[in-house]
Amino acid sequence: MGKRLTWFILAALLLGGLLGYALNLSYAGTPEGKATLDSWGYGLDIPTQMFLHLIKMIIAPLVVSTLVVGIAHMGGGGAIGRVGFKAFFWFVCASLISLTLGLILVNVLQPGAGMHLAIPTEHATSDIKPFDVAAFFIHIIPTSGIDAMATNDILQLVIFSLFFGVGLAAVGEKGAPLVRGLEALVQVMLTVTGYVMMFAPVAVFCAVAKVLATKGISSVGTLAYFMGSFYLGLAVLWAVLLGACFLVVGPRTGTLIRYLRDPILLGFSTASSEAAYPRTLDALDRFGVPPKIASFVLPLGYSFNLDGSMIYMTFASIFIAQAYGIHLDWWTMIQMLLILMITSKGIAGVPRASLVVITGTLAHFNIPEAGIPLILAVDHFLDMGRTATNVIGNAVASTVVARWEGQLDNPQAVEPTLAPVKGPATDADSFEDYGKS
Fold this sequence. Notes:
Layout: H1 2-27, H2 31-72, H3 78-109, H4 133-139, H5 145-151, H6 154-170, H7 176-197, H8 200-215, H9 218-249, H10 252-259, H11 261-270, H12 273-287, H13 291-304, H14 307-323, H15 330-343, H16 353-364, H17 372-376, H18 379-404
Helix pairs in contact: 1-2, 1-8, 2-6, 2-7, 2-8, 2-16, 3-9, 3-13, 3-14, 3-15, 3-18, 9-14, 9-18, 11-12, 11-18, 12-13, 12-18, 13-18, 14-15, 14-16, 14-18
């Protein structure tokens, strides 16, 4: 269904653009025509708003189930703790770099400044609250986990899930039935997310048609500039990640890129991290990263270190604010960066996870979520670059951790067609011999 949905979204983008352009050509230029276009825009906005409500509907169960299960499966053991600490140190640094690059570049390039979208009625009289350190830290602690779920306060949901997941891991076997239940909930919510995304082509069709009908063809140029700006940001991020890898690994970084050509291409062409994962694990094995390290760090990376997705979150969030002419001061944007730093760890690996996180972040800052379907119209093209960047980021993380552990072996001279891929390590006993070889 994934490939068909992609084609449906692309078709909806094209057909919606044609309809909107035709309406704009037919009615723009006269007061009567403007009224007609406003009427069309009102009708086309209904499916878009329905889709936004569906997205909001899945936020709370996705955050809670995925984050709690991830923490509960961390396991124990000194070796896992040591390797996990080194991995998370790299993840945090890479996340901050990715988010900060997105924040700087989107402000320098201003991709949304030319759209001049009208703020929806419910946001028309609202203003962005100034940054208040005390209020921020008080607010992140929920008074009730149920209330946080009911209000879709994504930051409070993350805090609640962190405490719940740590407590669940601490009780051990007594909590196993609950862990299995939450794992089942994760699968259910992934399925529900798939159902929700089936409505995406309709939302894309209506959103693009409305924009082109009311704004004209110039809006497409703005989206093209947004895409170009984002890919420029990805290029800068690649340079930073590979430069950091060179500082740790040395000249072998060039060899790593050659080994990763296949998974990068696979991830880019399919826009699927899942499709690229086995080939990435195999490439790291052939490059010299021990399987016991790669099979531990790489899955953690796909949950907590999606560098391409994180740079996209700051890019898209501030792009939408720019499109509506909402000014964000630097303190507010730093607050947004910190929130994205935390919330991006909660539901990574979920299809369209970036969309869910961005929606929750926009709501937190009272920025209209109506801009979400607009970026969804080009999301597939952006997702291709995000996925390729995620492959690079997590492969670099695994390689760096292996070097820090002193276990980075020499690369294999001959590359096999495809070696058997080992699954992620889940048993702490498999790490007992860390540091002995």
